[in-house]
Amino acid sequence: MKRIIESGIKRSMSYEAYRALVEELAQKSATTGHNQSQALIHYTKLNDRRMKRWDKTLKVSAQSRTNLLKFNFQITWLVIAESWCGDAAHILPVLNKIAEVAPNIKYRVVLRDENPLLMDAFLTYGKKAIPKLIIIDNNSGEVLDTYGPRPSEATGYVNRFIAINGALTQSFKEDLQHWYNDNKGKNIIEDIIEILNRLQPSTVYLQS
After folding, report:
1. Residue 26 maps to a domain
2. Is the dihedral of CA 117, 121, 122, 123 positive or negative?
3. What is the pLDDT of residues 6-30, one digit of tens each?
């Protein structure tokens, strides 16, 4: 597992590089990944616009900023994503805002289809669901936790809908996009702070 993680980190890019890549692909009418379908190209263009908006408008509250600065454990966030993924377009910008606040978090992005062994090691219910955040101890190289492919509230909505209807509909997917827009990253920040509290090697607890 450590070799797979190390390989993923070596092949990863900064969030800034990922954003530049998505923007370039959107301008060229292309997408990341093996499938270059018109549908995925469309989603890449849409996600580029979404991320531009989130990069400009997302805010981490003063309380969250203060408490994130208390996190004193050096970790790496390795996020598996693709440019066409709608959930990734909403989640990755929030993770970036958190990592900008917390100096002990190193944030890297890696592409799913270019790293099949890494993806296969972090399946969600047997599926290659993204985005997937892998939290790594910088000292030991061990995986401490994972997060994704959706924040906790969205996961609950999705699971309940599937339990009743068997599969997600296009209408539900559109409603989920509205949820992300209305929530403005708050649930993601809450989830991440909860995870950091579990990892924090002290009695100082963070608050969202």
Report:
1. yes
2. positive
3. 999 999 999 999 999 999 999 999 9
Comparing C-alpha atoms, which of 26, 61, 48 is closest to residue 92?
A: 48
* pLDDT per position as a tens digit, 124-182: 999 999 999 999 999 999 999 999 999 999 999 999 999 999 999 999 999 999 999 99
Are 79 and 133 spatial neighbours (Cβ–Cβ below 8 Å)?
Answer: yes
Mean pLDDT of 97-111: 97
Q: Tokens for 87, please give them.
A: 């959930």
Q: What is the mean pLDDT of the chain?
A: 94
- How many structural domains are present in the chain? 1
**Parent domain of 113:** 1-199
Which residues pair with residue 192 across a beta bridge?
none
DSSP H or E run through 129 = none
Sign of dihedral through CA atoms 206, 202, 141, 10? positive
Residue 27 lies in a domain: yes
Within-domain flag for 194: yes
Q: What is the CATH number of the domain that holds 140?
A: 3.40.30.10
Which token pair is 156?
């609950």
List the beta bridge partners of residue 205: none
- H or E element in which residue 79 lies: strand 75-81
- Is residue 18, in this structure, part of any structural domain at all? yes
Within 10 angstroms of residue 29's Cβ, the number of other Cβ atoms is 12
